[in-house]
Specification:
Elements (H helix, E strand, L loop, with lengths): L1 H14 L7 H8 L3 H13 L3 E4 L5 E4 L8 H9 L26 H17 L4 H6 L10
Antiparallel strand pairs: 1-2
């Protein structure tokens, strides 16, 4: 749910065309509870995806073009690795303690395939495409 809210917020910021949005307005546009959104915005800011300014003319905006922010990057920032199990992760690999041979493990192989398929889709769609409603039109290799 947290990643979904983060993606909704980034999509709303992309639709704002560079304008800064206060947390309340962003929460309304994205359908996200404001208090929950504030914590998410801190994570997105710390990851370099959102720029935040305080004060009367402050608010939140994208830190880089929406076309350069991929959904997979956002999900990794909010939820961590895409792999369903740590032994299948590319970025946070950790072998299972009960597995005698990770290289020969059939379950690990299946989970890596699932992780790779998920990555192909999520790393092929930008926040810009999501905001424009073109996310499903993005072609991903089979």
């Amino acid at each position: 749910m947290k990643a979904k809210y983060a993606l909704r917020a980034l999509s709303a910021l992309a639709q704002a065309d560079g304008a800064r949005l206060q947390a309340r307005a962003l929460a309304e546009r994205s359908g996200t509870p404001e208090k929950f959104l504030e914590a998410i915005l801190v994570e997105l800011r710390d990851a370099g995806l959102v720029d935040s300014r305080r004060g009367p003319s402050g608010g939140h905006s994208l830190a880089r073009p929406a076309a350069r922010i991929m959904l997979g990057d956002v999900i990794r920032v909010i939820d961590g690795p895409l792999a369903p199990v740590r032994c299948a992760s590319v970025t946070a690999y950790k072998p299972c303690p009960e597995c005698p041979d990770p290289e020969a493990c059939g379950l690990r192989a299946v989970m890596r395939e699932a992780r790779d398929a998920l990555s192909r889709v999520l790393d092929g769609v930008s926040v810009d495409a999501l905001a424009a409603g073109d996310a499903l039109a993005v072609e991903t290799p089979a």
